[in-house]
Design a protein that fits this description.
Rossmann fold; six-stranded mixed β-sheet; 29 strands; 27% helix; disulfide bond; von Willebrand factor A domain-containing protein 2; secreted; repeat; EGF-like_Ca-bd_dom
């Protein structure tokens, strides 16, 4: 049989177009931010003199439904335009096979007329001749426009599937100074939209299907050129990752089938396998960056306290859904108790280092505190002073009893500028800050100075702060991370310092400040001897920021104990990729030295093992030769994120069998089963939701430590005998039986024996 060429049989399957169920442009941000983008588009107004022409695709490839959505987008944009003959002029042109002018730029002088005529446009149909429409504008210019004496903006709304070339006429328009926005509809071809759009293209290519997002993107770009302005100075244009999608038809080999064809020159028929393909539609994605304006929301500062839920009512209003115990209170925050008798002087840094913005933030915080804390029956009195080079008492303590009057006086305090002399301000505040409000004897209320600063001091603060505290002034500090160490030195304790990361975080400190003003922390086990070791998880799973929170928690706990060689000794071990003893039990003899050493403990990173760290503590920290004292209660507090705790069960049991109490503090989504096995017979386990919540569990930790300190002590556990000596209890004391070659009370000296 003669050979014949294969005949390729192709079967084509056409899939009908369907509207996508997913967005064709998706900004990868939270649902809350999407809401802010939507709300911010209503905060932007365009009032500059400008000519704006909408060029709307009315071809069959777009379809009537997408044409209506294009009109809706144009109407939404017009809501932000200050339309008038001398300000913003708007025109519209529809194109299909040929362009058709719907109305020129000088036809209507009010937003109502423009939007009404935009809505009344009728779908035209025809081919997608985008290039012809652009050439029409090159010949005739903007119909009814002002001849390039004002900025010209062309907004092309199309699916990007033109049947002619668009790049050359678009380039010519842009060279004439026309700013071109390309707005996609239906399943747009993004490469054509990019050819149409002005530079930078990421800011001039949008998607009309998501109307509020596209409106925000267009107005955000125009706000950079001063054509549009945002109502609030706190609103900002920010880049966000986004993804653009398009629908394309691709050919795909499906398989083969028998096909027949008569042979050439004979009556024979050839039967052979032939490949066949199908056509299918696929969604292709294009990563991009979208620039959108967002404005702070009313709930950003989390004003609802004590578990209350903030419900926004527009951009600047909200209401709180409060738990039953706080249902009658504003922001779910109770006022200061009438029993809380205090005189408070807020000391605001007003220097160049703090900046005007920081000073205004501090004033806003004081106002928020006054509104949330002072009620009709409050016995707290408030004053305000500002400082840079000198102290100025703007509102003397107790001068205003009426909250509205106090708030009005706060508004009038001016910014100073100049040097940041915090030490001098503290000295003057102690001498004259409380003025006539200062009373003597038992009638005098507690006097408090609340220092708010974001700038390090340019003079000495230690001496003035020490003298202020000697006058029985309580010093509290509120500032950024940059001044944490200085504020701790001024106040004398990390417990008296509130650190915030940003403006909204600052306003969340109101409740914390209330607590510090009116409560006195209970002491630790002041009269009981204790050997206490903290083990901090410094592994990569915790991270440096959370490790710093662990350090702050350990410092706050150490403050509650009388640290000296006769009462409480404190040691610290950190573990990550390896175990390191930051300092031993007998290294530091004072509380101040312990606090400094905890702050200096290193973050290690790596993969942590709590079991290895606890074995290290058993063998090299809780021993007599390393400072542990016989007959003194011993406790280890392990702070961990949970990872690496699987191997700790045996070391924990070994420590407890040797008379050492162990408390495990697990933070975050820890491995609960692994930690539960470490809890021991007395359920020595605390679970904390987040690292930021550690401070709320300090009292529980202190209570546990003090409870363990009261338990009976076995003098031989852990054994005080070194070099494998045996500890023997005897008449309320103990003695060590030493191995050959060792002698002394604890078998710590080599014995000297004469050779036989």
């Amino acid at each position: 049989m003669p050979s014949f060429p294969l005949l390729e049989a192709t079967f084509i399957f056409l899939l009908s177009g369907v509207r996508p169920s997913h967005p064709l442009q998706e900004v990868h941000v939270s649902r809350e931010t999407i809401g802010k983008i939507s709300a911010a588009s209503k905060m932007i107004q365009c009032s500059a003199a400008v000519d704006i022409l909408f060029l709307i695709d009315g071809s069959y490839s777009v379809g009537k439904g997408s044409f209506e959505r294009s009109k809706h987008f144009a109407v939404t944009v017009c809501d932000a335009l200050d339309i008038g003959p001398e300000r913003v002029r708007v025109g519209a042109l529809q194109f299909g096979s040929v362009p058709r002018l719907e109305f020129p730029l000088d036809s209507f002088s009010s937003p109502r007329e423009v939007k009404a005529n935009m809505k009344s446009m009728v779908f035209k149909g025809g081919r997608t001749e985008t290039g012809l429409a652009l050439k029409y504008l090159l010949r005739k210019g903007f119909p009814g426009g002002r001849n390039a004496s004002v900025p010209q903006i062309l907004i092309v709304v199309t699916d990007g599937r033109s049947q002619g070339h668009v790049a050359p006429p678009a380039k010519q328009l842009k060279e004439r100074g026309v700013t071109v926005f390309a707005v996609g509809v239906r399943f747009p071809r993004w490469e054509e939209l990019h050819a149409l759009a002005s530079e930078p293209r990421e800011q001039h290519v949008l998607m009309a299907e998501q109307v509020e997002d596209a409106t925000n993107g267009l107005l955000s770009t125009l706000s950079k050129s001063d054509i549009c302005t945002v109502a609030s100075p706190d609103c900002q244009v920010q880049p966000h990752p986004c993804e653009r999608k398009t629908l394309e038809t691709v050919r795909e080999l499906v398989g083969s089938a028998l096909c027949w064809r008569g042979s050439r020159g004979t009556d024979a028929v050839l039967v052979a396998p032939c490949p066949f393909s199908s056509w299918k539609r696929v969604v292709l994605t294009h990563p991009a960056t979208c620039y959108r304006t967002t404005c702070p929301g009313a709930c950003d500062s989390q004003p609802c306290q004590n578990g209350g839920t903030c419900v926004p009512e527009g951009l600047d209003r909200y209401h709180c859904l409060c738990p039953p115990a706080f249902g009658g209170e504003a922001n779910c925050a109770p006022k200061l108790s009438p029993e809380c008798r205090i005189d408070v002087l807020f000391l605001l840094a007003s220097s160049a280092g703090t900046t005007l913005e920081g000073f205004l933030r501090a004033k806003a915080f004081v106002k928020r505190f006054v509104q949330a804390s002072l009620g009709e029956d409050s016995r707290a009195r408030v004053g305000v002073a500002r400082y840079s080079g000198e102290l100025m008492v703007a509102v003397p303590v107790g001068e205003y009893q009426d909250v509205p009057d106090l708030l009005r006086s706060l508004d009038g305090i001016p910014f100073g500028g100049g040097a940041t002399l915090t030490g001098g301000a503290l000295r003057q505040a102690a001498e004259r800050g409380f003025g006539s409000a200062a009373r003597t004897g038992q009638d005098r209320p507690r006097r408090v100075v609340v220092l708010l600063t974001e700038s390090p001091s340019q003079d000495d603060v230690a001496g003035p702060a020490r003298r202020a505290r000697a006058r029985e002034l309580l010093l509290l500090g509120v500032g950024t991370e940059a001044v944490r160490a200085e504020l701790e030195e001024i106040t004398g304790s990390p417990e008296r310092v509130l650190v915030y990361a940003g403006p909204h975080d600052l306003f969340r400190q109101t409740r914390e400040l209330q607590g510090k003003l009116c409560s006195r922390p209970p002491p630790g086990c002041q009269a009981r001897s204790l050997d206490l070791v903290f083990a901090l998880d410094a592994s990569a799973s915790v991270g440096p920021e959370n490790f710093a929170r662990m350090q702050s928690f350990a410092r706050s706990c150490a403050l509650r104990f009388d640290v000296n060689p006769d009462v409480t000794q404190v040691g610290l071990v950190v573990y990550g990729g390896h175990v390191r003893v930051a300092f031993g039990l007998d290294t530091h003899a004072t509380r101040a030295a312990v606090l400094r050493a905890v702050s200096q403990a290193p973050y290690l990173g790596g993969v942590g093992s709590a079991g290895t760290a606890l074995l290290h503590i058993h063998d090299r920290v809780m021993t007599v030769q390393r400072g542990a004292r016989p007959g003194v209660p011993k406790a280890v507090v392990v702070l961990t994120g949970g990872l690496g705790a699987e191997d700790a069960a045996v070391p924990v049991r070994k420590l407890r069998n040797n008379g050492v109490s162990v408390l495990v503090v697990g933070v975050g989504p820890v491995l609960r089963e692994a930690l539960r096995r470490l809890a021991g017979p007395r359920d020595s386990l605390l679970h904390v939701a987040t690292y930021a919540d550690l401070r709320h569990h300090q009292d529980a930790l202190i209570q546990w430590i003090c409870g363990e300190a009261k338990r009976p002590v076995n003098l031989c556990k852990p054994s005080p005998c070194m070099h494998e000596g045996t500890c023997i209890l005897q008449n309320g004391s103990y003695r060590c039986e030493c191995q050959d070659g060792w002698q002394g009370p604890h078998c710590g000296k080599r014995s000297l024996r004469c050779p036989q």
